[in-house]
Amino acid sequence: PPMRQLIRNATRPLRVLLVGSIVLPIALYAVAAAISHHQHFDDARDRLRRNLAIVHEHAQKVFETFEFASRYLDDITEDATDQKIRANEGMYSERLRAMTVSMPQLRDLWIVGADGQPLVSGTVYPMPRLDVSDRNYFNVHHDNLTNGPFVSQVLEARAANTRFFAISRKRELNGRFAGVTIVSIAPEYFSEFYSQLPPPGTSALLRADGAVLVRYPDTPGAANQLPANSPFLTAIRNGSTTGLVTAPSATDGRARIFMYQRLEKLPNLYVAVGVESEVITRAWILAMARHLIFG
User: Fold this and answer.
1) In the chain, what is the straight-line distance between the N-terminal and C-terminal CA atoms, in Å?
2) Chain segment 6-65, per-residue pLDDT in tens
3) 207: number of Cβ within 10 Å
4) Which of 90, 91, 130, 188 is the most interior residue, by most CB within 10 Å?
5) What is the reported pLDDT for 231?
């Protein structure tokens, strides 16, 4: 009927306005939410870049001190035979102890003879009879598997109740293998530094083969070796020295954004920082909820 048509025509603008008043705010909110989501992840990546720069610079400087300690070991034992070092263990131990206590990043300084028996240490005196010829930091040099310094995985000390990783160098006398010098490193020195970085996030120091030397926060029961198919190791095998990876963590399976960078002084070492994707998403949801409630 004409009257009904007139009413329908008269109310059409009102219906359009009503639908618009519902749909338009929802559409605007959805657009704002998408922009905010993108911004939150951009901000997270920016924080990771800053944190990565911090941990990379820190590692570079700390490993320079390890280089200095290694050279010191070379200097004081330049022409010394195993017999000479054993005969003067007290003097050598005191010199190594002075260096060790002056640098909190050091666990100890060691000199190991050609037979794999430690000769002197900066923290253990007198040296008990030990055999470390089975340790990889010794046999890689004994068997000529490397030409330069070697960084071990994290190990349990045999002369003390501590954990450490080591940088070892070959000693030679008259062109023959004469043992190794060892800079023993405290992993907690790095983890304590990482704990001071702006949260949330994780930080790590690891070898190019996936051996984890330091992880913060440390997860009880977490493996100290990344699986061979981990995104990080895949990127390293492809020749990458720095980059970004978004993938499930090998530690707990949670999706994370990782950034990593190789150390120039020791090219088989990398630092990495990461953050859980869920943490970023929760921050975004909270921000959008505040906008929804307070406008």
Assistant:
1) 45
2) 656 666 676 666 666 676 767 776 777 787 777 888 888 899 999 999 999 999 999 999
3) 19
4) 188
5) 84
Instruction: Dump pLDDT digits (tens) for 196-244.
Output: 998 778 999 999 999 999 999 987 778 889 988 888 898 888 888 999 9
